[in-house]
């Protein structure tokens, strides 16, 4: 066969898809590599996530360069046997009389033809491992081999072209052109949002576009179906479509290939509940041991299922969506396994916040690390699946975001925490009572005293009944109720309650306890609100000195106490003491809390007011 030239008209390349968009850079890269071959063999591996369009790119390249190659041959290459089949079919296409030969001889004839001819293109599509093609590549000296593979690593002796998702504009263009080819007057409002939800993955966009066109569904309608029936939509195929080319099936095949690393599927199910980007590896170490975790992440990265950057992991949002969608027919997505991964994620995130004080700036990095991943978990779960750890996470994050000024989000988290604690623990458990108190406090922060005060009153009554009048939680609840009365303008009830609570704090916890300091500050503020600066200012001054001594000058409570004292000086007309204190406190608050923190903004506003007096 070595002496036979390419037979005119012989070739096998899949038809180019009806719609092709983007990939200008990748096509130029392929062109550059081939053009610079100098007559030598050129081998290029296009690698990327399943569904990203590797085969489509290879087909487009072949179509654009039909005049360059004397023969273009496409071989499915997902196994050594498939590669041999493709080479044997090449031999039979070039010399039909060889079709009667044993397959081993036909394979050898196909390889020998490639080794002795020039100007051919061989596409090896969907190669599982570089080792599967190593023997073939070692024998070719001329020609062009384009490999497509999900395998990112191992291509040490060949050129590589990494393939990522489409740009946002390209994804919308792809969807629009596919839909309009069958439904010219389609209203595609919301196409950008749909493509964003699909993570701009070509296969997902193509699958959605075909569905829209055939069912006359709007982008918003498809998103609704995806939210309500994810398992069905991830496997939906158009009339006459290829059931193997769906999002769920493509990644099923990838995980089948990772069967030799059992922890890979386990770790991927865990990752599915986090935010797509910036997942700290430290949050995953509880799922499997460190050696197994590193191996699993390495294998997932090799198949482009995840991206590893430093100490963080990223996952395509659609890989996550499919992975966390139960399917009893898919061994990688068994309902019980997915539920276990969900609950473990709540545990890992909750454990990362071990009763930290959300008002202490030193703890904020931990909260900032956890927050985006907790939001993702909570967005993709329902309250009826919340565990104790989920409830703890909701409560902690509610307190943190409330302190950062995001009161609306805090209320949502704390309502869900209260309801989950009540369902899991009952109405009288300490955690349930604490969550009710926290929710009332956040209502107060939002200015909703109509909800805050009745909830405070009911919670205080239950605290006194369950824990007794001197329990610290009871004292805190009583102090909060007094503050709410003051906020409502009812100083007649607020001040006596503050005074009694402060006396109890000093007796039960001692004069230097942080809660005692807070209670004393609240009483001084109530005296000031009543116009009694003669009692307010000495109490503020003493309390500030104690706060600086006990908590330190940079603690948020100290900053608030200093602001209150400056405000009292201002109210007394003593701007000579008020303004310098405001100025120093503002500088400290900007340094410690940041320029946009609610406390910083209050201090800045008070300083502006004092300067304009």
UniProtKB/TrEMBL annotation:
Residues 593-613 are annotated as: Disordered. Residues 602-613 have a biased composition (Polar residues). Residues 40-179 form the NB-ARC domain. It comes from the Bacteria. GO terms for molecular function: ADP binding. InterPro entries: NB-ARC, NLR-like, P-loop_NTPase, TPR-like_helical_dom_sf. Pfam families: NB-ARC, TPR_10, TPR_12. This is Tetratricopeptide repeat protein.
């Amino acid at each position: 066969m070595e002496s036979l030239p390419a037979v005119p008209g012989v070739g096998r390349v899949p038809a180019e898809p009806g719609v092709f968009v983007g990939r200008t850079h990748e096509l130029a890269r392929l062109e550059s590599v081939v053009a610079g071959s100098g007559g030598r063999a050129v081998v290029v591996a296009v690698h990327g996530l399943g569904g990203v369009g590797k085969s489509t790119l290879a087909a487009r390249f072949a179509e654009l360069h039909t005049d360059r190659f004397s023969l273009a041959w496409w071989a499915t290459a997902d196994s050594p046997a498939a590669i041999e089949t493709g080479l044997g079919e090449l031999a039979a296409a070039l010399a039909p009389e060889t079709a009667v030969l044993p397959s081993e001889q036909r394979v050898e004839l196909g390889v020998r033809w490639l080794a002795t001819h020039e100007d051919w293109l061989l596409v090896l599509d969907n190669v599982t491992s570089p080792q599967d093609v190593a023997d073939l590549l070692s024998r070719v000296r001329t020609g062009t081999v384009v490999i497509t593979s999900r395998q990112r690593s191992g291509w040490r002796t060949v050129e590589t072209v990494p393939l990522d998702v489409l740009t946002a504009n390209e994804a919308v263009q792809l969807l629009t052109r596919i839909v309009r080819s069958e439904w010219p007057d389609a209203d595609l409002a919301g196409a950008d949002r749909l493509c964003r939800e699909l993570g701009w993955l070509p296969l997902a966009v193509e699958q959605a576009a075909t569905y829209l066109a055939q069912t006359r569904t709007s982008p918003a309608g498809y998103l609704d179906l995806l939210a309500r029936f994810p398992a069905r939509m991830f496997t939906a195929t158009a009339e006459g479509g290829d059931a193997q080319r769906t999002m769920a099936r493509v990644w099923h095949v990838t995980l089948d290939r990772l069967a030799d690393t059992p922890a890979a599927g386990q770790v991927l199910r865990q990752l599915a509940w986090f935010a797509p980007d910036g997942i700290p590896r430290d949050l995953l170490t509880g799922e499997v041991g460190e050696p197994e975790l590193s191996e699993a992440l390495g294998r997932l990265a090799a198949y482009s299922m995840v991206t590893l950057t430093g100490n963080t992991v990223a996952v395509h949002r659609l890989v996550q969506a499919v992975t966390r969608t139960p399917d009893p027919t898919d061994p990688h997505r068994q309902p019980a396994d997915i539920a276990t991964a969900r609950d473990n994620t709540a545990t890992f995130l909750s454990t990362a916040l071990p009763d930290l004080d959300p008002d202490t700036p030193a703890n904020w990095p931990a909260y900032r690390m956890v927050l985006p991943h907790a939001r993702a978990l909570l967005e993709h779960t329902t309250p009826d699946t919340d565990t104790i750890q989920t409830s703890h996470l909701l409560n902690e994050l509610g307190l943190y975001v409330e302190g950062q000024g995001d009161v609306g989000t805090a209320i949502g988290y704390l309502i869900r925490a209260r309801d989950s604690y009540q369902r899991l623990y009952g109405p009288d458990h300490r955690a349930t009572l604490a969550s009710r108190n926290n929710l009332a406090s956040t209502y107060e922060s939002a200015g909703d005293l109509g909800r805050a005060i009745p909830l405070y009153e009911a919670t205080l009554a239950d605290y006194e009944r369950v824990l007794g009048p001197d329990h610290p939680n009871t004292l805190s609840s009583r102090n909060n109720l007094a503050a709410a009365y003051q906020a409502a303008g009812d100083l007649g009830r607020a001040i006596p309650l503050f005074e009694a609570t402060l006396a109890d704090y000093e007796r039960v916890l001692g004069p230097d306890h942080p809660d005692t300091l807070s209670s004393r500050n609240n009483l001084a503020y109530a005296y000031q609100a009543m116009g009694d600066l003669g009692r307010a200012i000495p109490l503020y001054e003493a309390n500030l000195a104690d706060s600086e001594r006990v908590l330190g000058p940079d603690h948020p409570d100290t900053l608030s106490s200093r602001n209150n004292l400056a405000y009292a000086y201002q109210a007394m007309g003593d701007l000579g003491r008020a303004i310098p204190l405001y100025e120093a406190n503002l500088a400290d608050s900007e340094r410690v809390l940041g320029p946009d923190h609610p406390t910083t903004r209050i201090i800045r506003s008070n300083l502006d007011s004092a300067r304009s007096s």
